[in-house]
Amino acid sequence: MNRETMLESSISSSASLSKPIEIYVFVDPLCNESWTLTPLLRKLQVEYERYFTLKIVLRTSLPKMNLSCLRSKETTNSCENHHPAFPSIAMKAAEFQGKRAGFRFLSKLFEYTYLQAGNILSFDTLVDIAERIGLDVDEFILDFSSNNVLRALQVDLYLANEMEVDNAPSFVFFNENIEDEGLKVNGLHHYEIYEQILEEMVGYAIEPDLPPTLEDLFKRFDSLTTKEIADIYQLQEKCAERELKKQLLLQKVERVTCQDLTLWRKRN
């Protein structure tokens, strides 16, 4: 897992980083545990992003993705409009419009999965997600069926192999010393574990940033659960829900409920 063995592009980009820690997070769009990871990542970004850069890497559970059908621009016809590899392909296509766009796409996939708003294996659903988060949809569709997205997936698979990551979700932490080995953390753990690791990697006491206003939080993340918001603002869930209901009355947010999950999102 030494970074000297990683792709030259990854090494050269890390050399220019001003933040002391790099975190590679390996996710699988078809794995429920990867979706459970999403709220943890958001809280980590809100509180400690000044200490680290975040790289989302795909570690698909598909043993061998048959992507030959994606080489044609007639994607919806040649692959019958759905395929288990499509969410991974879409993630990479979204990232071509910026790292934050890729993370927003992942968050929206999380929302669609839990609200059962659409089949995320469907090309049409993925295009709808791209449109909803404000991507250039024409560019997204072109990238989706390009060779570039296949190469991007190959890079992710290469990184997983070099860092000896066999499962998702997994974290790999790197400090500023390029010769040091990365610290790999498999599976999901309590939030405090990641705080402790981050502090140990930085080498001094870290302090969480104050959370943004609710308005700014919803500008950054398309949808959040009541529990997420309570955790970010260190409130009891009842108090968080009361504040969210105020925003609901002001028509600043909307509430979507599916089974035992409630999501809040900015009102368009």
From TrEMBL:
Cited PANTHER family: CLPXP ADAPTER PROTEIN SPXH, GLUTATHIONE S-TRANSFERASE KAPPA
Top-level taxonomic group: Bacteria
Name this protein carries in UniProt: DsbA family protein
A Pfam family assignment: Thioredoxin_5
Family matches, as InterPro entries: Thioredoxin-like_sf
